[in-house]
Amino acid sequence: MFNIGDKVVYPMHGAGTIESIEQRDMMGSKENYYIIKMPVGDIKLMVPTSKAENIGVREIVSKDDSEMVFKVLEKPKEPYVHDTNWSKRYNSNIEKIKSGNIYEVAEVVRDLSHRHMERGLSIGEKKMLNSAKNILLSEMVLSQNGEHNMICTIIDDTIKCSFSYKPEEDGVINN
Fold this sequence. Notes:
This protein is an alpha+beta fold. It has helices at residues 52-55, 63-74, 86-99, 102-118, 123-144, 148-164; strands at residues 7-10, 14-26, 29-38, 43-48, 58-59.
């Protein structure tokens, strides 16, 4: 059970703060709801307290754990081993986003960003990248206690650096 003021993640929507816990009458049945205020877009979500765990609502990662997100984003661009089948790639990325796992969401942001810089993205993948990035940003802003634009810039710069990284520049040669 979460409390007012807790910072939580709602998969597919991102992170927010529990603003209140209210009892609402829905279709003749009274139930308690978490009212979650999302920092991006000034949105409020109502989540039944009894279903929060099944939905995948969880506490945000700690500041130390959020630093590990940058390690995921820093991973250098590898030769493309991803499935060239758009629908398989899309479904795989959707599953990662739905998981609510910040590291998997970071992988989606990194991989789609690399693909966008290399080849471009379809309209569907551009929307997915934007959505995944907003989900990632919302949690990073809260866990880092940082400013939205600053965290966004750090994420973008980290991804750009990882894309331009060439192992041979470090004396590493891949055979």
